[in-house]
Amino acid sequence: MPERLVDLSQPWNVLTPGWPTYSSPIVQWAKKLSTERVNAQRVETMLHVGTHIDAPMHFVTGGKDVASLPLERLYGEGVVVDISDAVNDYDIYAPETITSRADVRKGDILIIHTGYHRFAFDQGKTADEERYFCKHPGPNREFAEWCLEMELAWIGLDCGSADHPMNTVIRQLRPDLAAACERHLGQPLSEIFPDEGRQIMHTLLFPHDLVHCENLGGDIDQLLGQRCRIGAFPWRFEGGEAAMCRVVAFLD
Questions:
Q1: Dist. CA 249–CA 227, nearest whole Å
Q2: I need a labelling partner for 246 at 20 to 30 A (CA). Which of 11, 154, 186, 204 fits?
């Protein structure tokens, strides 16, 4: 038996925000003890709310659904890499940002701690939804290609997306932030991300069944720089392009 379990998941409730343009969940009492002698709830939600895993089907026609993700790939050896001292709003990280801080091995589960989980909805006074979803650091194409070369099992992030926010539709939705990002990086976004917001961590990796969990949190700060066994456990959702999940580290 493992000595300790560490939960890397956000709480999930009616206040958990969906990714920008995705609606938040609705939770209703369908039955109540007072009238029907039982409590039962009905939930209506997008799948990209809180800690969740994307299946290849999210971006690939005919790609694997959630139920087709093998447990042997969702659970295994991994490393939690802390890059929070190297990145801030809008920054871009590269393979060396990761490899200079941790021993990442072929086939690993890679969890990237940017530190932006401190801006998530459940973090009280430090919560900042705009900063969490629209300003977090992210990778470029070189990083995505490195992930493929390393044959990673899956990737986890403690922020709103595995992609840089300005390589998503946020770039068009928030031109004011796009302009601020260009000033910060000193280059036009069209040169940094020439694929015009096509979410390279999704479009390049998902055809190879390399997927990711987004919105990690929980007690991730307890694992910085550690190697351990990690598991992502979504529901067995046939036909699902994503699913909420519990992500847990197993410390022997």
A1: 10
A2: 204
What would the two tokens of residue 26 be?
């609705």
Q: Say what the pTM is.
A: 0.96
Segments in the chain forming alpha helices (H)? 33-36, 71-74, 95-99, 129-134, 141-149, 170-173, 175-185, 189-192, 200-203
- Could you say which DSSP state residue 24 is in? P
Rounded Cα distance, 157 and 115, in Å = 10
Residue recorded with tokens 């000033």: 183
- Looking at residue 33, its amino acid is L
Residue 233 covered by a domain:
yes
Using DSSP, state whether 139 is helix, strand or coil: strand
Tell me which residue range forms the domain holding 196. 4-10+48-251
The domain that contains 158 carries what CATH number?
A: 3.50.30.50
pLDDT in tens, 76-113: 999 999 999 999 999 999 999 999 999 999 999 999 99
The rounded radius of gyration (Å) of the Cα atoms in the chain is 18
Specify if 17 maps to a domain. Answer: no
Residue 80 lies in a domain: yes
Chain centre to alpha carbon of residue 36: 39
Tokens at residue 237, please? 């959702």
Tokens of 57: 């089907």
In the chain, the number of structural domains is 1
- The Cα 186–Cα 180 span in angstroms is 10
Residue 15, domain member (yes or no): no
For residue 44, what pLDDT is reported?
97
Taking the alpha carbons of 81, 206, 25, 20 in that order, is the dihedral positive or negative? positive
CA gap 39, 52 in Å, rounded:
26
Question: 3-state DSSP call for residue 147?
Answer: helix
Query: 151 is written with which tokens?
Result: 């044959």
